[in-house]
Amino acid sequence: MLQWVLGGPLGIGLGLIIARILPPRVGYWLAGLLTSRVVKTRGVMYRNLRCNLAHVMPHLDAETLDNLAARGMRHAGRTYYDMLRARIRDYVEDRVLVEVAKDAWETTLEAGRDDRGLVLVGPHVSNYDLVSQWMAAHGVEMQALSLTSPGWGGKVVNSIRRHRGIVMTPISMASLRSALERLETGGVIVTGADRPASMDDDLLPFFEDPAPMPTGHIRLALRANARVQVVSCHQDEEGVYHLVLSPLLEMEEMGDREETVRHNALRVLAIMEERIRAFPDQWLMFVPVWPQDAEPEVST
Fold first, then answer.
1. Is the pLDDT of residue 90 over 50?
2. 49 lies in the same domain as 196
3. What pLDDT, in 10s, does the model give residues 198-235?
4. Which residues does 237 contact at the CB level (< 8 Å), separation at least 6?
5. 48 in any annotated domain
6. With the C-alpha atoms ordered 233, 193, 293, 77, is the resulting torsion angle positive or negative?
7. Does the model's pTM come out above 0.85?
8. Same domain for 208 and 123?
9. Is residue 46 within 8 Å of 38, Cβ to Cβ?
10. Which residue range forms the structural domain that includes residue 60?
11. Do 289 and 215 share a domain, yes or no?
């Protein structure tokens, strides 16, 4: 029940109201209270997160893994509060605590304005929503490819993203054609690539275990002769979100098309693995990534 409240439209709507009226100290306390309840009851979000982290940090004992997942849940509460509290003018006027290396940011801005397309792709580490909205407010016009059938909570969050300057398009043939046209005219698209979009996705080694991982970002980049850049963020102890941008990746041609797709997808996954390993307690992946970890459905 608590999972439904937190992830549903009621929870998101209340979160928006609470984040706007409560000061950070109180907001963080309340977020911590709610996420601690999920940890205590071993809710499905916590269980999924813990299973995923076991692949990232396989050497950890059970107690340490429990604590790592609990820290991840608490961090998730803070990120939702920060994202829901921020308004467009907060991003524009730099009242949101985001830092990025100047040279890397200028490279991204230039790539987003030239006549070649740019595919931004990243893992769900820390406040990925907040930094993408910060990027949109600072001059990166982007189309986001999102899940085809998001839940109610996802629909509400997509509405927030749309309001804050990101063109939201659930993955479909029409949205993929739109993304390709955008890339071919020098535009920018953004998507996540550290979770299955479908269990029919290509099996690729992710933290050494095969998982169905999306490759659409690579296929689009190849068709449009676009570059790929891995985007991630993490939060430091002072509460600052650090936006980390990889060098621009040119797609490398291999023997045939599928081999080329796999090769370049693995290049991107390797960078994302590095970012996730650096901040495992900030990897907010609440759905099963590896098929063997999915819980069986219980018929009623």
1. yes
2. no
3. 777 889 999 999 999 999 999 999 999 999 999 999 99
4. none
5. yes
6. positive
7. yes
8. yes
9. yes
10. 2-87+285-293
11. no
